[in-house]
Amino acid sequence: MLYWAAVFFIIAIIAAIFGFGGIAAGAASIAKILFVVFIILFVLSLIFGGIRRGPRP
Asked: What is the pTM of this model?
């Protein structure tokens, strides 16, 4: 998912360079959403991964 966020970010940068404001804004917003979803899933996997293992001796 982080890969797709980076891809949309690069598309947004290229579109902004060529002056396609609407496409750049759309790609940037998709990149932001994917990045936030990635961060949320990453934090949840850290929390639940720590809970599954239990305390260390």
From this structure: 0.64
